[in-house]
Sequence to fold (141 residues):
Amino acid sequence: MKLTSVLKPSEVQRDWILIDAKGQTFGRILTQAATYLRGKHKPSFTPNVDCGDYVVIINAKDAKFSGTKLDDKEYFTHSGYFGSTKSKKLGDMLENHTEKLYRLAVRGMLPKTTLAKSMLKKLKIYAGSEHPHTAQLKEGN
Fold:
């Protein structure tokens, strides 16, 4: 009987995974991406090691949103000074800062440790269908 094995950072094998956001729900895309970035889909998942894959999201602007979120949901920023709170609507963020919107949402789904920084570096987001990672992707993804 074999005991549970612990994965070492040097033994991690990474794949490139392509997610097409066209017509898919925004939250479902993000949970799928967070799962791949974390490595929870692998049988050799180890919580304290970054064992996730690279994730490429294309057609990011074509994601679906339920209800009136595009008009109602707001994202706030604050620099630390008095009166510096600024807000942006979800619709504006999707049009102007698509990559930032996806990174903010995925970052909230990753662990709140230093591992999250290295996991987020493996997330690539593109508003259109063109991306420079075609050589890395496997057939069938």
